Structure formats: C-alpha cells, structure tokens
Amino acid sequence: MVNPEHLAAVMAVATGGAVALPYSVTGLRYLTVDADRRAVMRRGWFIRATWRRTAARIGLVQTDHAAKVGADIPLAGELRRSSDKPRVLIPRIAVRVEAWGLRIDVRTVGRIGLGELQAASSYLADAWRVPQVRVEQDRPGVVRLRALLRDPLTVPTRYEPDASAPVDLASWPVGRDADGQEVTIRSSGVSGVVLAGLAGFGKTSFLNTRFCQLAPSPAVQFVLIDGKGGPDYDDLFARAWLYSKDDLDQVHAVLSKVHRLMLLRQGGIASVLGVKNVWHLGPSEAWPLVVVVVDEAHTFFNETKTDKARDKVTGEITRMVEELVRKGRNVGIQTILATQKATGDAIPTRIRDNCQAAVSFAQRTSEASVAALGADIAEYPEAHPRRLQHPDYIGVASMVVEGRPGFTLVRTPRTEDDTAARLAADTAHLVSDPLALIEYQTRGLHAVEDDTAA
Ligand SMILES: Nc1ncnc2c1ncn2[C@@H]1O[C@H](COP(=O)(O)OP(=O)(O)OP(=O)(O)O)[C@@H](O)[C@H]1O
Ligand SMILES: [Mg+2]
C-alpha cells in the first residue's frame, strides 16, 4: 500500500510543491534540507492533503446554518437536487514548517474555535501521527496548533556563564519553554522558593545555575547549606558568606546568624536606606541580597520524637526558616528550599505556603506534585510533573510564570560542576559579611544619634 505521507512528498517534489500543494515550502527546498527537516515537511504536506477528511472524521466541520430557510431539512416528499444540500464548512488551515514540527493556523468557523480544537487535540495527534498537538488562541479568529514531531523539551541545554553580561537581580532566567522562548521568573520581592523533584532530576544543577548567574555580582552574598552532606557544594563554599553541610548544630549556628541579620536589617532599613523595602532601590554592595540555599531541606525539619535535644534544635531551625521566608522579603533575604522528599510534610506547610515561587521537576505521584506546586496543578495535565518521569525530562521543571496562564514546562540548562567551581573561585574575593555590615551601619547611626543628643 502506498503511504499517503510519501505520496504527498512525491507529489510535492514532482510539482515543485506549487501546483498541487499551495503552501510556503516548495519541493525544491525539500531537496536541499536535512533529513529531520524533510520529515517535518512531509508531515506538513500530509496534514494539508488530508485535512478535509481529517476534519470531517473528527467532527471539526459544521453545516452552514446561514443557508436559506428549509435548506437543512427537506419538506415531506420534496425532491432535492444535490446543489440544494446544506453547505458543509471546514475551517481553513495554513501549515508552516518550524524547527520542531508544524505550525497550523486554523481559521475559526461557526462554533468551531479554541475549545473544540483543544478537545480534539489528541484525535488530531493520532490522525497526524505525531506525539503531541498543542493548541492556543493566536488572535481573534485564528487558533494556532503545534504538531510536534519531537518534544523540544527533551533536548538538553547547557549553561555557559557570560562574564560580560550585567547581573539582573530582579529576575531569574530559568530556561526555555517548549517553543524555545526564554522563561524568566521574578526574583525581586521573593523571599521563599520551593524546589522539588525526584532524586536525580536536576534540582542541584538548577541551583548551581542560579549560583553562577548571581556569583559575579558584589550585591549578592550566599549562605549554602547542604543537607545531603556530600561533596555537591564543596567547590562553591569559596563564594559563600556562610556554609554548612548536614551537621544540625552547625546549620543552627548558620541560620541563627542569618536570622539575626534579618532582625537588624528590619530595625535599620528605614534609617540606612531611607526606604522600607530594599527592592525599591535594588540590592547593592552596601545592602546585598542574601541568597540562602538549603538543599535537601527536609533533613532539617524532621522531628525524631525520641531525641528531645535534637528535636529542640530542629524546632528552632524550622522557626527561623519560617521567619526568614515570611519576613525576609523587604530586607533582601531570599531562601531557596530544595527537597526530593515527596510527602506533604517534607517542608512544613507554614513555610511552604509563604514561598512565592515553586518549581517542580519530575514527581511520581499527584500528591507529591500538589505538595510542591499546589492543588491547581491538577487542572493542567500538560504541565504535570508526573509527565516528566522519563529520563529524557531530566532538567525539565513545571512552574508558574507570571503573565502566563496555568503552569509552564521549562527546560533548564545543565551547569557543569567545573563551571560552577571555576566561577566560585574567580568570584571568591566578592564575599563580604552582611551581618558585620549592618552592625556597622546601624552602630554608626546610633553614634550620630548620640552625638546629636550630646
Ligand atoms: N538541566 C539538566 N539537563 C541535563 N541533565 C541534567 C540537568 N540537571 C541535571 N542533569 C543530570 O542529572 C544528574 C543529577 O542531577 P542533580 O544532582 O541536579 O539532581 P538532584 O535532583 O539534585 O538529585 P538528588 O535529589 O539526588 O540530589 C546530573 O549529574 C546530570 O547528569
Ligand atoms: Mg541534589
């Protein structure tokens, strides 16, 4: 049997693509492009050539109710000529070849619009023999379909630091979406971020990338806490104001300092900066953004119920982290909590609920996805972290992006350990002590006040 897709290709090549199949790509071009592109072009011709039949079979057609009265329903005993049959309207399409597949613009007709095409997307994927058809409204009257031959999110990308690029502390470039668009989430005014996902799906690499983006700025100081206790962060400690592995007392000591910093900054911000929110001015060398990374954060929130002394420390750590997340926003302290633990209690809800951003790599269960991203994720099956369990999706995360509806899947770049280590060494001279700084800034202030009093 002749494969209709190949037949469409042969026809297009034979006719120069112009006579039988009038769309932008020509048969001539077909001969000059690589095999991947040819496959996309063939599929495009196939979709175009079979569109009327496909639309009819899937029910994306409608009879023209604007036809003259009585045209739909013959009167009893009335003989009808074939020309009297009600007109069947099929939405017109325009097919374009793109890097990952085909873009098909469908002109809406009658009651066939966004909702009907969304409902038909899986049937269209079957009819066109593609893994996925995505549907969105392009502009009034046009719905855009994307028939993806390969999911672009499965192609890994790599982060390369650009030393000459200015560091924008207000935003956080996280990667690219399925259409190759840069995705950025907000960093200004964010005091808490939850980062979740199954072991080995890219959480630490994501944090390395963020570290590399921020490390060249003297207006950023890091606190790095690694609950795994392994070597993951060893090379980055050089660029950290404070750091610790999984030793509970050490973590307690580190967080106590950060907590004290927060209290002093709260007390001094109005006098030192003249504003009540550092983001109104943006962080600076004199008032740096303090990024607190707690990897494998669940390590520090679990109570044993048997070891009282340990549970006391755990309780205090939990309280300090909760306050940092709840009150750190105005004073420029941002806490990022990463966890592979999938249960709802991995990060206490009173901490999680105060985090403004959540990012989830693959998850095994709906419960885990809800624990990371909130209950709304259930309404967005396309961006559900359960979809990401395949190794091809290592490094792909689901998140809310301001200005976009629902959740967005993002391919995050991989940062090589060497890259991050080199950057940490190169920027180690930028480490300063924000606690000493605020103590100095506020002491100076009291001295001035004292002078005035005297
Ligand atoms: N963005 C990415 N793109 C491609 N591959 C990645 C990406 N991120 C991570 N990987 C690969 O996956 C491996 C595990 O990544 P990573 O250590 O970041 O996972 P993790 O989620 O922190 O795991 P764990 O929970 O065990 O700490 C990396 O060594 C790397 O090979
Ligand atoms: Mg990790």
UniProtKB/TrEMBL annotation:
<keyword id="KW-0547">Nucleotide-binding</keyword>
<keyword id="KW-0067">ATP-binding</keyword>
<protein>
    <recommendedName>
        <fullName>FtsK domain-containing protein</fullName>
    </recommendedName>
</protein>
<dbReference type="InterPro" id="IPR027417">
    <property type="entry name" value="P-loop_NTPase"/>
</dbReference>
<dbReference type="GO" id="GO:0003677">
    <property type="term" value="F:DNA binding"/>
</dbReference>
<dbReference type="InterPro" id="IPR050206">
    <property type="entry name" value="FtsK/SpoIIIE/SftA"/>
</dbReference>
<dbReference type="GO" id="GO:0005524">
    <property type="term" value="F:ATP binding"/>
</dbReference>
<dbReference type="InterPro" id="IPR002543">
    <property type="entry name" value="FtsK_dom"/>
</dbReference>
<feature type="domain" description="FtsK">
    <location>
        <begin position="180"/>
        <end position="370"/>
    </location>
</feature>
<feature type="binding site">
    <location>
        <begin position="197"/>
        <end position="204"/>
    </location>
    <ligand>
        <name>ATP</name>
    </ligand>
</feature>
